[in-house]
Amino acid sequence: MVLLYNRKPGPWCYRQFRYPAYVNGLADGLLMEACAGLLDNDAPDACIQREAAEETGFDRNPKRVFEHT
């Protein structure tokens, strides 16, 4: 899991419309999410950069803070 973080605003999450949430009673259908995606045969670091840019517009080189195995 990758969680984008910026010291000032904190973790980067965004609201995204999800039809199943809407039809099951969530008034606006918007869920708070962290960016995520499939590896698509890419290296994990390349996937992280691609998904972050696609979903949040955050286009920087990620810094690995820690890794849990």
Report the biggest beta sheet as strand number plus sense, adding barrel if it closes.
2 strands, antiparallel
Kindly estimate the percentage of residues that lie in beta strands according to DSSP.
15-25%
- Count of alpha/pi helices: 2
The chain-level mean pLDDT equals 79
- Trace the largest sheet across and list its strands: 1-2
Shape: globular
Count of β-strands: 4
N→C terminal distance? 11 Å
List SSEs in N-to-C order.
EEEHEH
**Assembly type:** single chain
The Cα radius of gyration reads 14 Å
Task: List unreliable stretches of 5+ residues.
Answer: none
Helix content: 25-40%
Structural class: alpha+beta
Describe this structure in words.
- The N and C termini lie close together (11 Å).
- This protein has helices spanning 19-23, 44-56, and strands at 5-6, 10-11, 14-17, 30-33.
- With 69 residues, the protein is α+β, with helices and mostly antiparallel strands.
- The strands form 2 sheets. The chain has a two-stranded antiparallel sheet with strand order 1-2. A two-stranded antiparallel ribbon has the order 3-4.
- The longest helix has 13 residues, at 44-56.
- The chain is built from 2 helices and 4 strands.
